[in-house]
Write a structure and sequence with these properties.
Blueprint lengths: L10 E5 L6 H11 L6 E6 L4 H12 L2 E8 L2 E7 L3
Parallel strand pairs: 1-2
Antiparallel strand pairs: 2-4, 3-4
Length: 82
């Protein structure tokens, strides 16, 4: 069963104040701890994450469920794939 309808992610990753490529490296490491279908919320301030996160997910078989701004913070929600 997929957790994509959950309002609470399985794990939250705070990469605020870190610049590219560190947020993606940490996202990759955090997803290793999750099982297929679990979700990871990424909290970032680097504007590059808006492009980098969807590209990373596409290459690595994960699904980006949402990406939006909350003030200066960019919130991404990713479902782990294969």
């Amino acid at each position: 069963m997929s957790n994509s309808n959950k309002t609470t992610p399985d794990k939250i990753l705070d990469v605020k104040k870190l610049l590219c490529p560190i947020p993606i490296y940490r996202t990759d490491a955090a997803l290793l701890d999750l099982k297929k279908g679990q979700t990871l919320e990424i909290q970032a301030t680097d504007p590059a994450i808006v492009n980098d996160l969807p590209a990373y997910c596409g290459i690595n078989g994960h699904k980006i469920l949402n990406i939006h701004h909350e003030g200066r913070v960019i919130i991404g929600l990713v479902e782990k794939g294969e």
